[in-house]
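explain this chain.
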Amino acid sequence: MEVAEAVVIAIVIALIIAFVLTSGLRAELKSVQTATQANIYIKEGSFKLSNEQDIYVCKKVDRTAKPKPQQQQVQR
């Protein structure tokens, strides 16, 4: 039972160390707030958009026809 007790004690110590480290990292993230727009990350006057055009390097479109549902005939 000495080996089993040593393993349990080691696991408990590892969990305590992990908890202390992760709680410290979480405390650093409390200043972060959610933003709905990216304009808070740009310094005023540092970004000038000269061309508003999307250019796609690769474009591949695969088209597959949807199977039409089969109509069941109702006999009267």
Notes: Helices lie at 2-28. Residues 1-28 form one domain. The two ends are 80 Å apart (CA to CA). The longest helix spans residues 2-28.
